[in-house]
Amino acid sequence: MLVERCFHTLDRERVRFHDTTGRCSLASADAAVWGIGLCVLAAPEIVAGAVIIVGVVVVGVVIKEALDAYELSGSSQEEVEPAPQTKPASQEPSSNRKPKPEPSGQDGFPPSPTEPVAGERRPNCRPIPVPHAGGDDPHNECADRFPPNRYPGMDVLVGGKLFDALQVGVRVLWEIKTDQFDTYNAFLKGQVVKDQVAKMREERDIALSCGYGFVVGVSTEAHKDALERAASELDIVVTGCKR
Predict the structure, then answer these.
(1) Per residue in 123-165, pLDDT tens?
(2) CA 43 – CA 128 distance, rounded (Å)
(3) Quick one: which of 168, 176, 181, 179 has its CA closest to 140?
């Protein structure tokens, strides 16, 4: 949220971005409109050299400090990847150093999480905000409001697939449908459900493989019932959104 709101105000003549991890150029290929700067700032593993300040400007540093504080708060530990160690070892006398915990069979490295972070397994699992496609305002408004969307006005690219929303506060991706399903004849209802279920199963598989939950939001109970009969494994909720 901080990056999204502040990125447009940066003086990009005085702030440069360097992709120290080599991931942004790959992960943001389908989101080039945002540029490498947004990708670098949105990545939690911001390290020295990622934001290059030209002249006297502090906003990039403020954003970095805020992101660091957000990471330390633990409010989204699921998405935080360990930052590479870029600072040299301290040269202060050993008498002034704080005692270190005893090694636990890992030769001094910090303990690894039980489950590897999704971004470590597959770099393209990191969520990349992409502007909603135009032309369907009721659908986009529903996607922003109902989950609610962590990136208002944005779809999110995960695992090479665009999802309608990433829910605030949890690792759950959403597919939103605002079809006027109840007005369709029997043949059209059957065709719509068949096509949607195939797509939703593909999206669900991608979401789960990247460590996310997956929820489908539909406008009516009739649409929900039809999808559940065809694919009981899907998690479907009624949004009540109107077209």
Answers:
(1) 789 999 999 987 899 999 999 999 999 999 999 999 999 999 9
(2) 10
(3) 176
pTM of the entire predicted model: 0.53
Residue 130 near residue 156 (C-beta atoms within 8 A): yes
Amino acid at site 124: N
What pLDDT band is residue 112 in, cutting at 50, 70 and 90? Answer: very low
CA 197, CA 212: separation in Å to the nearest integer? 19
Cβ 226 vs Cβ 193: under 8 Å: yes
On whether the CB atoms of residues 160 and 141 are closer than 8 A, the answer is no
Bridge partner list, 215 = 174
Contact 210, 166 (CB under 8 A): no
The ranges assigned to domains in the chain are: 2-85, 120-238
